[in-house]
Amino acid sequence: MGRLDERIAIVTGAGQGIGKAIAEKLAAEGATVIATDVNEGTAKATADGLGGASVGLVTDVTRRGSVDAMVEQVMDRFGRIDVLVNNAGWDKGEAFLDSEPDTWDRIIQINLYGVFNTLKAVLPIMAEQRYGKVVNLGSDAGRVGSSGEAVYSAAKGGVIAFTKAMAREMARHQVNVNCVCPGPTDTALFASMGGDKLRDALVKAIPFRRLGQPEDTANTVAFLASDEAAFLTGQTVSVSGGLTMC
User: How far is CA 5 from CA 27, 29, 56, 136, in A?
Assistant: First the structure.
């Protein structure tokens, strides 16, 4: 028996990296996973790898219409939504003084408005069910700041604060809302942000002397998505090997 047997779970940004690992972990725990991504091919590839009744759906979290259409498809097919994992994210590493408003807009639209859009569509369903688990992916950049990621830090800080506000509003509906903040994690996005010099510096700074793996974050998300975390809400958990302790 898995911790998430018979649960219907949506994971955004599930086409690769941390999102794919989360989808795989939730499925391994028994959930039927709706793997969404702006790239339809990777969304379907993730779902195909999960087997069972899991499906892959193209979804652009920055567009309300796209999110609403995805949620409608899920409800038509499954009749309920038990778990929502807001993982979709994007960043561009550069000093703030070198950045441009177009980049700010994209970072905020994906990382912050994406969470607004999915919760606006899904929370009424969970409230009516009087059951739901929401896990938002923040970042340690949003807790302590990160040089070269100023706007991303601001957006993820917004996710952390929004998580707490939603936890307060949704508690009366028996819906849990928590936030997981990955530290430096060995993904394609991390690789695009810097080379071996950055990797080596971070490994030396992390008490466990390694980068996080996507599975490290996925394991924490799966716990918060389960009934084992029934009395946890409004919490922010860093998965950083001790790099951040706050």
Answer: 9, 7, 19, 21
